[in-house]
Design brief:
The chain is α/β, with parallel strands linked by helices. The protein has helices at about 15-20, 45-60, 70-90, 105-120, 140-145, 165-170, 195-205, 225, 250-255, 290-305, 310-325, 355-365, 380-385, 400-420; strands at about 10, 10-15, 30, 30-35, 35, 100, 125-130, 150-155, 175-180, 205-210, 230-235, 245-250, 265-270, 275, 335, 345-350, 370, 370-375, 390-395. The strands form six sheets. Strands 6-12-11-10-9-7-8 form a seven-stranded mixed beta sheet, sandwiched between helices. The protein has a four-stranded antiparallel beta sheet with strand order 15-16-19-18, covered by helices on one side. Strand 7, helix 5 and strand 8 (about 150-155) form a beta-alpha-beta unit. Helix 2 (about 45-60) packs antiparallel against helix 10 and helix 3 (about 70-90) crosses helix 10 (about 290-305). The chain is globular and about 75 Å long.
Length: about 425
């Protein structure tokens, strides 16, 4: 399912070749060529992923694990083989450390519910940050309210980085969970998660949970070296299908945690007054799973590996460098996030003073340029920088320098229309 070597020349992506795999990009919007710069919200899907899902439904579909007939055998094989491929993709030690979920949000809710029930009590502390997507904040708020725990926040510096000195001071004997993003969806900040892992290990017995929704699609992820206990990520942001995601978890902790949901598939035996649970990871996968989604997510992982994730990251850095350079020349425009390209992913959030982020995005849309405007489900971030919303352009392997230049020209047009 991976891309042929011709997709990379030296360390450079052959973007024209890659775009052939994404036919959705070859269309117009209001008579203008589509410029899709909203991959942080959801990436587009290559033909290889679409074909893998189509083939599964055309040839192999049945329910998994219980049936003895040929289609059930094929479906089960495809489902579990996909788990093994995604496990290798994040360098998990064991395929059974991968729990299938509906996405990053469900994976984080699973951890918050189950680890909270197992390890977090009244007066214990949960550390999150002012950088969080709501999916890595609200579940911990609910846990704190439910168990009487205390939620503490690592603040952001003016450059959009986590204040690690503050984190160091917060960690202590009552710290049970530290939950942080690998990459900020609202700022593009790549957090130094290995350093954070060493810090957490050195000063507490807390579990470290990473929201990898923006990390997994853009960086080579090795869960064995990151120093975390859980890593959550989504299929739809990494060229895979919607409604599909995964949680990597420390096997010992997964064994310790109670089930997140009850139903079929996750049980070993049901009695009248109690039940016993299936082995990890199946005790967390109640009900008929998204089999086709697992097949599609594994195909996406294969595709990105076939292109070369290091080359993808370098390509995104070059696009980000060009975007920041061009947008910095627009009068009244402010860009948020770290200045050093080594510390940011392909996300460029900005505001034009005196305008609405939504109005800027609407004018860009009229030029065929798709960006996102709002708080990006990270309201604490825009509050920290005292704006109500930002316009966010985000890049991926299929974007071109020419599209970045169209973005900059479109932003200039938007400013002129809105401010004269």
């Amino acid at each position: 399912m991976g891309r042929p070597a011709s997709a990379v020349t030296g360390s450079r992506l052959d973007v024209a070749r890659i775009r052939e795999d994404f036919p959705i990009l070859d269309q117009t919007v209001d008579g203008r060529p589509l410029v899709y710069l909203d991959s942080a919200a959801s990436s587009q899907k290559p033909l290889q992923v679409i074909d893998a899902i189509r083939t599964y439904y055309l040839r192999d579909h049945a329910n998994v694990h219980r049936g003895v007939h040929e289609l059930a055998r094929r479906a089960t094989e495809a489902y579990e083989d996909s788990r093994a491929r995604v496990a290798r993709w994040v360098n998990a030690a064991d395929a059974h450390e991968i729990v299938w979920t509906r996405g990053t949000s469900e994976a984080l809710n699973l951890v918050a519910f189950s680890i909270g029930q197992a390890r977090v009590g009244h007066g214990d502390e949960i550390i999150v940050s002012a950088m969080e997507h709501h999916s890595n904040l609200v579940p911990w708020q609910l846990l704190a309210e439910r168990n009487g725990a205390k939620l503490r926040f690592v603040e952001l510096t003016d450059a959009g980085r986590l204040d690690l000195d503050q984190l160091r001071d917060m960690l202590g004997a009552r710290t049970r969970v530290v939950a942080l993003p690998h990459v900020s969806n609202a700022l593009g900040t790549i957090n130094p998660v290995r350093e954070i892992g060493r810090l957490v290990r050195g000063r507490s017995d807390a579990v470290l949970v990473l929201d990898g929704a923006q990390g997994a699609p853009h960086l080579a992820v090795d869960v064995q070296s990151l120093g975390c206990d859980f890593y959550a990520f989504s299929g739809h942001k990494m060229c895979g299908p919607t409604g599909m995601g995964a949680l990597w978890g420390n096997r010992q902790l997964l064994e310790e945690m109670p089930p997140y949901q009850g139903g079929g598939e996750m049980i070993e035996h049901v009695y009248r007054d109690h039940s016993t649970w299936a082995e990890v990871p199946h005790k967390f996968e109640a009900g008929t799973p998204n089999i086709a989604g697992a097949v599609g997510m594994a195909a996406a992982a294969d595709y990105l590996d076939g292109v070369d994730r290091a080359a993808i990251h370098e390509h995104e850095k070059s696009l980000t460098r060009r975007a920041i350079s061009l947008l910095a020349d627009v009068e009244g425009l402010r860009i948020f996030g770290p200045g050093a390209l080594e510390e940011r992913a392909g996300v460029v959030p900005f505001v034009i003073d005196g305008t609405s982020a939504q109005d800027v995005a609407t004018i860009l849309d009229a030029q065929g340029i798709a960006v996102r405007a709002g708080h990006h489900c990270a309201q604490l971030v825009v509050d920290r920088f005292q704006v109500s919303a930002t316009t966010r352009a985000s890049f991926y392997l299929y974007n071109t320098v020419e599209e970045v230049e169209q973005l900059a020209e479109g932003v200039r047009t938007a400013r002129n229309v809105l401010l004269g």
